[in-house]
Amino acid sequence: GAVVSQHPSWVICKSGTSVKIECRSLDFQATTMFWYRQFPKQSLMLMATSNEGSKATYEQGVEKDKFLINHASLTLSTLTVTSAHPEDSSFYICSATLRLTSYNEQFFGPGTRLTVL
Amino acid sequence: AQSVAQPEDQVNVAEGNPLTVKCTYSVSGNPYLFWYVQYPNRGLQFLLKYITGDNLVKGSYGFEAEFNKSQTSFHLKKPSALVSDSALYFCAVREDDSGYALNFGKGTSLLVTP
Description:
The structure holds two protein chains of two kinds. Chain A is 0% helix and 52% strand. By secondary structure, chain A is mostly beta strands. In chain A, the strands form two sheets. In chain A, strands 2, 4, 5, 6, 9, 10 and 11 form a seven-stranded mixed sheet that branches. A four-stranded antiparallel sheet of chain A has the order 1-3-8-7, with no helix packed on it. Chain B has strands at 3-5, 10-14, 19-21, 24-26, 31-38, 44-50, 56-58, 64-68, 73-78, 87-95, 103-104, 108-113. In chain B, the strands form three sheets. In chain B, strands 2, 5, 6, 10, 11 and 12 form a six-stranded mixed sheet that branches. Chain B is globular and about 40 Å long.
């Protein structure tokens, strides 16, 4: 199946710094990528939908100025957590869809564990 | 509005026994249903999906799921559980015309004991 990678797999940073997480589709072109956040023992919560070459669509309650998403190419989307605080510590997972139809499954990256001290 | 419920936080089963992980959904249109599995500190792996057609869907690693429209359920099943099946399982739903984002259940932790 299609492969999605994320980098880094884990990151520890100081409060107030910014962290960039990369999501890449390795063997296909993804016109749409999704960013999720997962708290311990909880489900995935969709943060935003990222379309190549256009602005991301954020879910209600997600601060777009804090979670900057860039989807500059068909194989790369980035999530930047700006001015990170301890409450931003979480597991961030991206996914990509092979073709933009509602019935196609999303392929998920392995996730990035962010710890803000 | 669309939603999905996984009523069990944890399912315990002995190796070799059949397993069932329950999922019910609520949508106003036609549902697209998915099952994913997550191992610790890993992303989600796709198991199977129901779009249309046969109500019994076969997926990866010997898993299957049965779509029941009258009961609005999409339970995940496997005839003979393996210890390596122990993981977190997520059911997800999307309406056919609601866009592309998935709505996930809270997850069910499956523990298969030797």
